[in-house]
Amino acid sequence: MSLEQSPPDGFLEDAAHYPGGHAAGVVFPRTPGEIADALRSAAAVLPIGAQSSLTGGATPMGELVLATTKMTQVIDRSAHQVTVQAGLTIAAMQETLAAAGGWFPPTPTFAGACAGGVVSTNAAGAATFKYGSTREWVDGLVVVLADGTILDLKRGEHRAHNGSIDVLTATGRISIPVPGYVMPNVSKRSAGYHAAPEMDLVDLFIGAEGTLGVIAEVTFRVLSPVPQSALALIPCRSEPQALELVMALRRASLDTWRTKNRCGIDVAAIENMDARSIAILREDAADARNDVSFPDDLAVVLLVQLELPPELTPTDAYDQIGGALTPGAADSALVRFCRMLAERDLLDTTELAMPGDRRRAEQLIAIREAVPAGVNRRVGIAKRDIHPGIAKTAADMVVPIERFAEMMEIYRQGFQGRQLDYAIWGHISDGNVHPNVIPRSYEDIERGKDAILEFGRAAARLGGCPLAEHGVGRNPIKQQLLRQLYGEEGIAEMREVKRALDPEWKLSPGVIFSSS
Ligand SMILES: Cc1cc2nc3c(=O)[nH]c(=O)nc-3n(C[C@H](O)[C@H](O)[C@H](O)COP(=O)(O)OP(=O)(O)OC[C@H]3O[C@@H](n4cnc5c(N)ncnc54)[C@H](O)[C@@H]3O)c2cc1C
User: Fold this and answer.
1) pLDDT at 18
2) Cα(380)–Cα(394) distance, rounded to whole angstroms?
3) How far is the CA of 299 from the centre of ligand 1 (A)?
4) Do 26 and 11 form a contact (C-beta atoms < 8 A)?
5) How far apart are CA 41 and CA 130, in angstroms?
6) Residue-level pLDDT at 2
7) What is the pLDDT of residue 44?
8) Residue 399's pLDDT is what?
9) How far apart are the C-alpha atoms of 272 and 293, rounded to whole Å?
10) Whose CA is nearest to atom 53 of ligand 1?
11) Is 88 in the pocket of ligand 1 (CB under 6 A)?
12) Is any atom of ligand 1 closer than 6 Å to the C-beta of 210?
């Protein structure tokens, strides 16, 4: 085989630091044909992108690692679409698009992730509230099946009919059964196989975490022009106050999109950090480092990403803010936003980064990113100093926004009832947060897992999904959350889907569910 190969060192773990990674070797295909060669020659294959998976799904357990690192071409580009190879990073794709004034909206926080990886996990960024998750932006895929068959799929070409999706390939007909479970109706979901009565075959491979086929190429829908954004870091005095503001901003934005009002508030994303997250920022001096001073009476910090008309100049933006509270100020999105904050007595303590003020925007984003970094560092220290079995113990759950306050109460009671230290932050505009244990002993990890399983049952009961954006991977708790969500029957239906496309169980064995 002419495929480039190397020993597996450097590819044995993903960002979850899942233990025990080992591999038969690594291959670096450059084309769908070379992917097919690799699949035909190996007993088991694990496709990987940037290995930024937070679930162990990109950690090999004896398979041949199929690294897409060399598949970085932009194949085709138009005003509305871009077709790229699977190994192109989202950051590189954004750069290419920006040169022509376009952009790809559902970017995950980690823009070093690859096209194939974000599709395989149905990744979602902070801006899901406005733009949805990756799924809504995929128009087509080139997928290589476990037996080397190459499928060139366009959305709309293969739809489910009478409980199955039929595909005619060069070697015969494949009939894929559609599972009968009902997926939670929420804005983001990365919880096993997509299933709906008239579903598209493209949707089956999105979020399948590499278990059904290797994605070689992706056609994404893109937008232009790139919008101007302002960021606002808003310290709130209580959780009810923060949630009331989130709901008001969501309502105003939905109204703006419906009426296409150019003066309306247009929010793409709202992130939240709870009181413990803020304490971590202070302990780590992340506030001082980023030139932010929080008031003392503080329960939640929100980070709002506000989209503004492309023609607004920085000077106009500053003028609008300066005059927002004066009677007779001209109507604009910024004026409305400032008034909304002033009505709640929040304007004076809000930190703003105006369009074009890149340095301030980076500082405000750094504040948000310092929270997971601070928690991960504390977990690492506890693992080193207290017990080697200590690991990140965190949930990634979404509920309909109307049930968010209820779910937050469940997170708090669940952790406090088990005497756990914890922090909660995330994408509040979607009702999606990441409750994290801050471990002080190995027992905290066991109690934390128990709490997470309880949260998963509650999220499902409230109409949400216990696996929102990171996927399932090899993580035993996430696999258990998936079983809780769809039951053993649902997992058995997923196994039937896998059997139809990968009867020898060659692709990513043990990811999402076990073979038996
Ligand atoms: C700092 C940080 C921030 C993050 N923020 C977000 C966020 O905001 N939103 C979010 O959704 N996720 C987030 N993640 C998780 C992760 O970045 C995403 O899941 C990302 O989409 C994974 O892309 P990747 O290229 O790293 O894939 P990998 O980690 O390499 O792989 C992920 C999964 O996809 C499969 N896979 C990869 N490439 C292919 C392919 N070509 N064909 C078939 N299967 C393939 C792998 O087998 C694995 O199961 C974050 C992770 C980190 C470390």
Assistant:
1) 81
2) 14
3) 32
4) yes
5) 44
6) 67
7) 98
8) 98
9) 17
10) 52
11) no
12) yes
pTM over 0.85: yes
Q: Is 469 in the pocket of ligand 1 (CB under 6 A)?
A: yes
* pLDDT confidence of residue 1: 47
Cis ω before 225 (30° cut-off from 0): yes
- Residues of the chain predicted below pLDDT 70: 1-2
Taking the centre of ligand 1 as the mean of its atom positions, its distance from the CA of residue 115, in whole angstroms, is 9
Residue 162 C-alpha from the chain's centroid: 32
Residue 318 DSSP SS3 = helix
Q: For ligand 1, say whether the CB of 479 is within 6 Å of any of its atoms.
A: no
Using a 6 Å cutoff on CB, does residue 50 contact ligand 1? yes
- Ligand 1 mutation pick, 35, 52, 72, 206, max ligand atoms within 8 A of CB: 52
C-alpha to C-alpha distance for 438 and 391, rounded to whole angstroms:
10
pLDDT at 317: 86
Bridge partner list, 301 = 235, 273
Question: What is the rounded CA–CA span in Å between residue 445 and residue 438?
Answer: 9
The encoded tokens of residue 151 equal 């499928």
Q: Is ligand 1 within 6 A of the CB of residue 58?
A: yes
What residues have CB less than 8 Å from 394, skipping those under 6 apart? 434, 435, 436, 437, 452
Instruction: Compute the distance between CA of residue 293 and CA of residue 282 in angstroms, rounded to an integer.
Output: 10
Supply φ then ψ for residue 475, to 5 degrees: -70, 120
Question: What is the model's pLDDT at position 42?
Answer: 96
What does the alpha-carbon distance between residue 122 and residue 143 come to, in Å, rounded to a whole number? 15
